[in-house]
Amino acid sequence: MSEKEDGDEDRELLVKTRPKTKRPPLYKVLLINDDYTPMEFVVMILEKFFGLTNAQAFDIMITVHKKGLAVVGVFSYEVAETKVAQVMDCARQHQHPLQCTMEKE
Ligand code: TYC
Questions:
Q1: Cα-to-centroid distance, 105 and ligand 1 (Å)
Q2: How far apart are CA 101 and CA 28, in angstroms?
Q3: What is the pLDDT of residue 9?
Q4: What integer pLDDT is reported at residue 1 of this predicted model?
Q5: How crowded is residue 38: how many other Cβ atoms within 10 Å of its Cβ?
Q6: For ligand 1, atom 5, which residue shows the shortest CA distance?
Q7: Helix axes 39-50, 54-67, angle to 10 degrees
Q8: I need a surface site. Which of 28, 51, 74, 82 has the fewest CB within 10 A?
Q9: Would you state the pLDDT for residue 19?
Q10: How far, in Å, from the CA of 99 to the mean position of ligand 1?
Q11: Contacts of 88 (CB under 8 A, 6+ apart)
């Protein structure tokens, strides 16, 4: 077998074979409006658990207040699950009815 033949075969295989790598699905974390949770508490939650600035947190809080809900961020399943749990635990501890959920993007 010639060297040329040998090398070409290898290259053909490399070009045609696409590795089957799938990106893990992403999840949106959503904040839901209610009539009782204080605005300042929602802003504090967004700063504390999502690393937002006060201005960013205020904008999202106002969007939720006006539209009923908003996406706070998009994360891997594990991170989204943790954020939802942190928000719900903190809201419960302060006896606010704030709701936070996640859904597949
Ligand atoms: N609507 C609330 C109020 O007027 C504020 C609020 C904003 C509550 C966002 C929940 O996810 C929320 N105090």
A1: 24
A2: 8
A3: 47
A4: 38
A5: 11
A6: 39
A7: 130
A8: 51
A9: 79
A10: 10
A11: 98, 99, 100
Mutate which of 64, 67, 84, 94 for ligand 1? The one with the most ligand atoms within 8 Å of its CB, which is: 64
Residue with tokens 């419960």: 92
Q: What pLDDT sits at residue 86? A: 98
Give residue 33's pLDDT: 99
pLDDT of residue 3: 41
Residue 28 has a CB neighbour count (10 Å cut-off) of: 16
Tokens, residue 8: 């070409």
Ligand 1 within 6 A of CB of 61:
yes
For ligand 1, the distance from its centroid to the CA atom of residue 16, given in whole angstroms, is 54
d(CA 52, CA 44) in angstroms, rounded, equals: 9
pLDDT beneath 70: ranges in the chain: 1-16
How many other C-beta atoms can be found within 10 angstroms of the C-beta atom of residue 55? 9
**What pLDDT score was predicted for residue 58?**
98
> Closest residue (by CA) to atom 7 of ligand 1?
65
The strand pair at 99-104 and 69-75 is best described as unpaired
pLDDT score recorded for residue 17: 72
